[in-house]
Amino acid sequence: MSMTFALIGNQNCGKTTLFNQLTGSNQHVGNFPGVTVEKKEGIIKKQKDKFVVDLPGIYSISPYTAEEVVTRDFLINDRPDGIINIIDATNIERNLYLSLQIIELGIPMVIALNMMDEIKSSGSFIDVKMLSNELGVPVVPISASKNDGIDELVSVAVKTVENNDKPAKTDFCKGSVHRAIHSLAHLIEDHAERKNIPVRFAATKLVEGDEPMIKLLDLNQNELDILNHVVTEMETNLDTDREAALADMRYDFITSLCQKAVVKAGQTKEQERSIKIDALLTHKFFAFPIFIGIMALIFYLTFGVLGAYLSSGFSYLIDVVTAAADNALYALDINKALHSLIIDGIFAGVGSVLSFLPTIVILFLFLSILEDSGYMARVAFVMDKVLRKIGLSGRSFVPLIIGFGCSVPAIMATRTLSSERDRKMTILLVPFMSCSAKLPIYAVFVQAFFTSHKALIMTFLYVFGIIMGILSCLLLKGVFFKGKPVPFVMELPAYRFPSFKSVCLHMWEKAKDFIVKAFTIIFCATIVIWILQNFDTHFNMVSDSSKSILAAIGGIAAPVFKPLGFGDWRAATALITGLTAKEAVVSTLQMLTGDAGLSSIFTTHLAALSFLIFTLLYMPCVAAMAAIRREFDSTVKSIYMMIYQTAFAYAAAFCVYNAGRLMGFGRDAAPGIAEIIIGIFLVAAIVCVALYLILSKNHCSANCSKCAKNSKNKSF
Q1: Residue 165 backbone zone (phi > 0: left; psi -120 to 50: alpha; other: beta)
Q2: What is the C-alpha end-to-end distance of the chain, expressed in Å?
């Protein structure tokens, strides 16, 4: 018998961990809100034709956020055979609020009471049998992280669906709320049955004022009048609004239930430990410097110690393999053109990208530890005050931090933002974060031009991207996204030791993505680049690549970049191929420069820095642009963004390069690294102050006729 279970729960309740235990999935587990954005499906281990769908973490099934819409649509439209509702036993009161809403759907359901190991260690007690009797659904105690109780949970869930055991109770209300719900249930019974929606669930949603449900039921005007009358009477009797009335009803029941079934001896060890750590890590003055220090340490270890050592060793292995392949091709007397394609094209291009695999794996090792420990949620809390000044809330920090890995999932993660304004602003800010695909570019240039200051330059590039993102936000906030960000409410999960399995899975996912990209997109790109580099417009092989098709293409764009310090056709070509994948910039430059090295294109350190800044800020790869187009649901707006971001990158690189030249840094001799950084920050500071003054200047009264005539509500 085929079965589909919906896995539902609040954020940070261990839902994705349970999904991995049930399915053996390699999905990443993160200890901060917003990890799961889309539903994911897997087959339950040792159970034939038994599927489980991991839905986004939510607190209610009202259609206010994209994650709630995904869950709601799946439950109503797809109608799973059963529901596994996972609850954090250490926060049972809050978690049960969602459970009461799900029960109203009338679908066979089992509650997985997670983190029971922490309940026992704290000396607390939960009467599981009483909880089950009062809720009318089976309750199974588990510990997802330790794989305790999972087999029993699966067995109970399967048996519940086989017997079609729907929740024994769906009515937890009383008084005026009870009268309102039951009155409306009778009113809409035929409408709900016609749409195949549970009557109790539909009636409750009407009391809440759920607009999608009102439209779905297609009520006539008389029925709408009765609905409004019933709700108004309830609000008058309770002296509160409709949503507060339902919330009070649910929490009254939950409070009464927990008083009977839950005995708390105190806070768990994890909660006590978290309070002590948070006294420092979320301190009013120390929190932000500590975060900067942690990230600087990660960059130092990744680029200055561990990463440099491992990348050098990996590069040596690639050189050995390349030399062996080169010798084998000579021994086999392979055609010179094919020989060049394999060695100078494929091995040089793909190998130059693969050499940075250890660096990327190490970086994501540290980031995964920060995520799984619960620290990233604290950073979002700390960053709320900072982000609010540029028009965003702390919740935007989650997609932004994901953006340091890859822009595509970061853009998708903006669906967790309830405000459309905040969501679009965050999407526009994500590409300013240095994704892992840009890391090989930084590493190559730092090794070639800034050997003595690797970690410092790497840290500077990441920070500079953030500063430019803030500057962009201030500009957009003043022009397109006027208004205030929504209030920020976030649950801070207890600090927990990162799971070794989870960290390893995260590292493997990033390594696998990088390797797949190297042997697909980069592989194909290197072949195309080699062909364009070695043939002229009449498809005759050339010995001088400056006479090739590639030179002709790059030559058209090269003059545009001359004011930035790199008006060479090879640099322009690398930027164009970088649109397929940012790693392609490295492979293209490796193929085009050969033994001559980057110094044949970038004659000064300032020109190299200008190129780095442009690659940091210009439009993202086509995959990210496709994600932006999908989220905006507009090709025109996504094109506007490409133009805007590339223009922004051009302006930033132009300011840096020409300001540096005015300060005397444009000579062949390497300038002092401290002088470069000071100069760039001065330019950035001047631009920031200028924009701030422009955007914050006082305007005349909104009542004047001229403003009233010309003012329009602009929206992106």
Answers
A1: beta
A2: 49
The residue assigned the tokens 């819409």 is: 69
Least confident of 19-28, 71-80, 580-589: 19-28
Do residues 457 and 616 make contact, with C-beta atoms less than 8 angstroms apart?
no
Rg of the Cα atoms in the chain? 29
Q: Report residue 391: phi and psi, to 5°.
A: 100, 10
Average pLDDT over residues 464-468: 84
**Which token pair is 74?**
């799946």
Are 503 and 443 within 8 A, CB to CB? no
DSSP-derived letter for residue 143 is B
* Section 459-465 average pLDDT: 83
Residues 640-667: pLDDT tens digits?
A: 888 888 888 888 888 888 877 777 665 5
CB 603 within 8 A of CB 668: yes
Contact 445, 608 (CB under 8 A): yes
H or E stretch covering 467: helix 454-479
Residue whose tokens read 């430019």: 468
Least Cα distance to 618 among 644, 597, 655 occurs for: 644
Computed over every residue of the chain, the mean pLDDT equals 80
| Alpha carbon of residue 582 to chain centroid | 19
Long-range contacts, 672-678 (Cβ 8 Å, 24+): 673/450, 673/452, 673/453, 673/456, 673/457, 676/605, 676/606, 676/609, 677/456, 677/460
With helix as H, strand as E and coil as C, how does 149-185 read?
A: CHHHHHHHHHHHHHCCCCCCCCCCCCHHHHHHHHHHH
What is the tens place of the pLDDT at every residue in 564-599?
Answer: 888 888 888 888 888 877 878 888 888 788 767 788
What is d(CA 176, CA 301) in angstroms, rounded to the nearest whole number? 62
Q: Specify the pLDDT at position 488.
A: 61
Rounded to two decimals, what is the model's pTM?
0.69
Element (H, E) at 53: strand 50-54
Decide if pLDDT at 137 tops 70. Answer: yes
pLDDT at res. 669: 45
| DSSP string over 267-322 | --HHHHHHHHHHHHHT-TTTHHHHHHHHHHHHHIIIIIIHHHHHHHHHHHHHHHHH
12: left (phi over 0), alpha (psi -120 to 50) or beta: left
Question: 17 CB contacts (<8 Å, ≥6 apart)?
Answer: 29, 144, 145, 499, 502
DSSP code, position 334: -
DSSP H or E run through 367: helix 357-373
What tokens does 234 get? 């309830």
- Can you read off the two tokens belonging to residue 18? 């349970």
| Apex 39 CA angle, 35 and 41, nearest 5 | 115
Distance (Å, rounded) from C-alpha 260 to C-alpha 250? Answer: 16
The total number of residues written for the chain in this structure: 716
Give the helix, strand, coil percentages of the chain, each rounded to 5: 70, 5, 25
CA distance 629 to 635: 6
Spatial contact of 364 and 405, defined as CB atoms under 8 Å apart: yes
Residue 446 has pLDDT above 50, yes or no: yes
User: Cα angle at 178 between 175 and 179, to 5 degrees?
Assistant: 90
CA distance 483 to 506: 37
Helix (H, G, I), strand (E, B) or coil at 43: strand
pLDDT at 32 over 60: no
Q: What is the pLDDT of residue 399?
A: 80
Q: Give per-residue pLDDT as tens, 371-397.
A: 778 887 787 777 777 777 777 777 777
